[in-house]
């Protein structure tokens, strides 16, 4: 059962605790839906959260600030949410804390992973970072997007484009990462490959899966609708949907899940 957590007005977190059959300290994941900073698709929020809950993971879905708010607003929200999971008054026994991000939410996840502090920020030091990450067709480098898209997304922040490209800031301190995309996803595939290249070059443990079918934004790829109405990217691709099985195996390999 989802529970609303009181938060500052800049953010909204919805908690999906691990299913009742799991006991003791459990891992937790901050869920960052995609949507190009214009929307937060429920299938990449609630959908992921229900899957994680069934694995025995506490899932915290964040409604971060969207356009017309620009950076650092969504990054501030993501940092605050990550800190809340570790230190907040939610009453859960939390173990390791990870992040899952899709598309634009994957950009946010990447900025958390790298501990990136933007030159337009003041008074930020030692931001919270996740212990593991799951990146679904996640934005790695803004240079891999068409220039008009980048200009529309960043506006007057275009001069700090490289700062907002998380794969440019990967080093050996970044957490182990699971990356996936599909071969039919023009923005997702090159970004997934760039994530994998950057992480491997820094000797960060990384696992990459590329599936043959499915468009950008497909989420769990199980065709299930959330939020009361269908989303344009919802589709059922059974083979692509097996990414969740592969990811659960990876979580066990990394010691995040013991059962």
UniProtKB/TrEMBL annotation:
It comes from the Bacteria. The keyword RNA-binding does not apply. Coiled coil: none annotated. It holds the Pfam family Abhydrolase_3. PANTHER family: AB HYDROLASE SUPERFAMILY PROTEIN C4A8.06C, PEPTIDASE S9 PROLYL OLIGOPEPTIDASE CATALYTIC DOMAIN-CONTAINING PROTEIN. GO terms for molecular function: hydrolase activity. Residues 47-218 form the Alpha/beta hydrolase fold-3 domain. Keywords: Hydrolase. This is Alpha/beta hydrolase.
């Amino acid at each position: 059962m989802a529970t609303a957590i009181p938060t500052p007005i800049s953010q909204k977190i919805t908690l999906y605790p691990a299913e009742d059959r799991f006991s003791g300290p459990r891992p937790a994941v901050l869920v960052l839906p995609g949507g190009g900073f214009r929307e937060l698709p429920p299938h990449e929020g609630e959908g992921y959260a229900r899957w994680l809950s069934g694995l025995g993971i506490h899932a915290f879905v964040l409604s971060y600030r969207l356009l017309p708010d620009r950076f650092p607003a969504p990054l501030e929200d993501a940092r605050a949410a990550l800190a809340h999971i570790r230190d907040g008054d939610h009453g859960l026994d939390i173990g390791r804390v990870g992040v899952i991000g899709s598309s634009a939410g994957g950009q946010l996840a990447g900025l958390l992973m790298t501990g990136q502090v933007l030159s337009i920020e003041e008074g930020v030091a030692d931001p919270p970072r996740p212990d593991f990450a799951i990146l679904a067709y996640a934005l790695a480098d803004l240079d891999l997007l068409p220039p008009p898209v980048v200009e529309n997304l960043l506006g007057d922040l275009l001069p700090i484009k490289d700062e907002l490209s998380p794969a440019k800031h990967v080093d050996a301190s970044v957490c182990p990462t699971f990356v996936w995309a599909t071969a039919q996803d023009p923005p997702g595939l090159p970004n997934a490959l760039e994530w994998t290249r950057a992480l491997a070059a820094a000797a960060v443990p990384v696992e990459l899966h590329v599936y043959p079918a499915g468009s950008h934004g497909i989420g769990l790829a199980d065709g299930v609708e959330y939020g009361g109405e269908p989303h344009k990217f919802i589709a059922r691709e059974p083979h692509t949907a097996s990414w969740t099985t592969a990811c659960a195996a990876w979580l066990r390999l990394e010691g995040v899940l013991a059962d």
